[in-house]
């Protein structure tokens, strides 16, 4: 019967009778049957359940490796964002925090500047995000996409420069929002970023 794997038909005869594409059969010393990998995998999985199992397990392992690599890239971008945050806070400390204030007052200035970036990129403050997501732990940045973290990292450096130039917070917010829009559009349309996903 042709439906069972006990059916016998030589590769050469099968190629000739079906005008098969993607498979070649040669005789002689260096001969053999050669096929496109998709045909080979299909034939091997039909022939051996054990091979099919190993093929599926290997595919799952490769997907897990890919996911781990993408998570690593996300962590790397989160780390870069944290490093830039120090550059950002140093600029705030030197330019925006008046002398002789309490640590709590200084904390308000830092939080206010962090929210400036949040509003420019995400459109909401940290408190608005927490109020809208009571079941989630962490903060808005912990749930950011890879693209958003790249832009956030860039915005921290740009804001540090804008602070040093003496721009008001409202002027900086407008400029940072324009930067966020431009960079997000560029990253989302980037073919290189699409290949990473």
TrEMBL record:
Pfam families, alphabetized: KilA-N
Name this protein carries in UniProt: KilA-N domain-containing protein
Recorded superkingdom: Bacteria
InterPro entries from the UniProt entry: KilA/APSES_HTH, KilA_N
Provenance organism: Niabella drilacis (strain DSM 25811 / CCM 8410 / CCUG 62505 / LMG 26954 / E90)
Record-annotated KilA-N domain positions: 1-62
Parts of the chain that traverse the membrane: none
